[in-house]
Design brief:
Layout (H helix, E strand, L loop, with lengths): L5 E6 L6 H12 L7 E6 L5 H7 L6 E4 L16 H6 L4 E4 L2 H7 L3 H13 L3 E6 L3 H5 L3 H12 L5 H4 L3 E4 L14 H19 L1 H6 L2 E4 L7 H5 L6 E4 L6 H12 L1
Parallel strand pairs: 1-2, 1-8, 2-3, 3-4, 4-5, 5-6, 6-7, 7-8
Bound molecules: 2-phosphoglycolic acid.
2-phosphoglycolic acid binds next to strand 8.
Length: about 250
């Protein structure tokens, strides 16, 4: 048996509109989730309500992939925290590297969004990660500490206690990514936990799940979750098919 509860989930990114999402959610609802796993799925906005309704009576958490920090107003093309709540979601992914790289997401806007999400009762899943250059220069830890500290700036220890963090090296994400060595991930997570201890004390820091993401697959998931400071995995491609997600859950739980 694994020694800790594990958060295991996937973001569908820009895949699965309402029709495909309904089918996928029905398959997800039939997955036998291991007792030690807290499962989540993060569909695109247009499928959020469908998926939330399909999984309403299950243990699955459902999240959005982004949101605006304001409650309402003249923000064409944006989605507010209330809208996400109204669709039945209880979490929101913030600061994914694809948002940072292609849509101008900054540490500052991630911080605004984290505060707003918490105010609206949405659990933020905050993504942080080093670029290939930062990794090559050996400043991974500095980058992660900076991104995390700014994301959490201005929050109380209690509020910080509601967040989930995901370390996702930018160089490990996607089809062109290279899966990170488990040892490297273990060190990065332990150092992140240490920074959290400085911010909110050890007892609180130990309660915050730090997930790992970036080319997680059936072949490597259990190696990551075996690491002391890895509290789950955040999966892309390998979990878009619900059977892939189910297989990864079984692999880490057995
Ligand atoms: P990947 O995506 O598993 O397809 O590399 C991970 C992510 O972007 O969270």
């Amino acid at each position: 048996m694994p020694r800790k509860p594990l958060w295991i989930g996937t973001s569908w990114k820009m895949n699965k509109g309402p029709v495909a999402a309904r089918d996928a959610a029905a398959q997800i609802a039939s997955i036998v989730v291991p007792e030690t796993v807290t499962p989540f799925v993060i569909p695109p906005f247009t499928s959020l309500e469908t998926v939330s309704e399909s999984l309403g009576k299950t243990s699955w958490h459902v999240g959005a992939q982004n949101m605006h920090w304001e409650d309402e107003g003249a923000w064409t093309g944006e989605i507010s925290p209330q809208m996400i709540r109204e669709c039945g979601a209880d979490m929101v992914e913030l600061g994914h590297s694809e948002r940072r790289e292609h849509f101008g997401e900054s540490d500052r806007t991630v911080n605004l969004k984290v505060k707003s999400a918490i105010r609206h009762g949405l659990r933020p899943l905050i993504c942080i990660g080093d670029s290939a250059d930062e990794y090559a220069y050996g400043v991974t830890h500095e980058t992660l500490a900076r991104q995390m500290k700014i994301a959490l700036h201005g929050l109380t220890s209690d509020q910080i206690g509601t967040v989930l963090l995901a370390y996702e090296p930018v160089w490990a994400i996607g089809a062109k990514g290279k899966a990170a060595e488990p040892h490297f991930v273990g060190v990065a997570h332990t150092r992140l936990r240490r920074v959290l201890c400085e911010l909110i004390g050890e007892e609180n820091a130990l309660r915050i799940p730090i997930l790992y993401g970036g080319s997680v697959s059936l072949d490597n998931a259990a190696q990551y979750t075996a690491l002391r400071d890895v509290d789950g995995v955040f999966i892309g491609r390998s979990a878009w098919d619900p059977s892939g997600l189910a297989a990864i859950m079984q692999s880490v739980a057995s």
